[in-house]
Amino acid sequence: MSAIAVRIEQLPPMRVASVRAFSTAPERDAWEKLQVWAEDQGLLEDSQAHPVFGFNNPSPTRAGGPYGYEYWIRIGPEDAATGGIEVKDFPGGLYAVTTCKLFGDPSGTVMDVWKKLADWVTRNGHQWRQTHELERLHDPRVSGDEIVLDLYLPIES
After folding, report:
1. How far is residue 88's CA from residue 136's CA, in Å, rounded to a whole number?
2. Strand, helix or coil at 22?
3. How many of the other CB atoms lie within 10 Å of CB of 132?
4. Cα–Cα distance between 21 and 32 in angstroms, integer?
5. d(Cα 121, Cα 81) in Å, to the nearest integer?
6. What is the pLDDT of residues 8-27, one digit of tens each?
7. Fewer CB near the terminus (10 Å): N or C of the chain?
8. Which domains does the chain have, with CATH numbers?
9. 21 - beta bridge partners?
10. CA angle (60, 62, 68) in 5-degree steps
11. Which residues lie closer than 8 Å to 46 by C-beta, 6 or more apart?
């Protein structure tokens, strides 16, 4: 496994449309619902203007058991949520960020990369801020074996 490259990034406050699922495959279940809504709104055409973030909510408590996963997509102040989509205001914040592939990353599995990022934060004197760790999809329209993620670990400024 190789080392990771880390950058510090300030995420701005943003208004997001949110979908959450609780199951043994909540990433898939929540994504299917958000994807239908976001495509209908034309939001998946520009991943810079409308980034997609996800995170465990709630985290798994036992292997193979159900857990939650929540997706957010940035929306504008004029955008309305419909069909079970919730609108939230995200305050933004400071994050340590690294990039990995969902499958076949030279640094290991996504969990391995999360661990390396947490170790990097500790070794470099940063304090872990208690809020959501985020996973940002580079391009939410690609197939599963092509998915690239930015992992965002919240840190104190």
Report:
1. 17
2. strand
3. 17
4. 10
5. 36
6. 999 999 999 999 999 999 99
7. C
8. 7-154 (3.20.80.10)
9. 69
10. 25
11. none
Q: Which residues contact residue 143 at a Cβ distance below 8 angstroms, ignoring those fewer than 6 apart?
A: none
- Partner residues linked to 93 by β-bridges: 11
pLDDT digits (tens, 9 = 90+) for 46-78: 999 999 999 999 888 888 889 999 999 999 998
* Paired tokens of 31: 């994504």
pLDDT value for 75:
97
What percentage of the chain reaches a pLDDT higher than 70? 99
Structure tokens at 10: 């300030």
Residue of 97, 98, 76 whose CA lies nearest to 87: 76
In which order are the strands placed within the sheet that holds 93-101? 7-11, 93-101, 148-154, 134-137, 52-56, 67-74, 14-23, 86-90
Tokens 């934060």 belong to which residue? 121
Instruction: Please state the pTM of the whole predicted model.
Output: 0.93
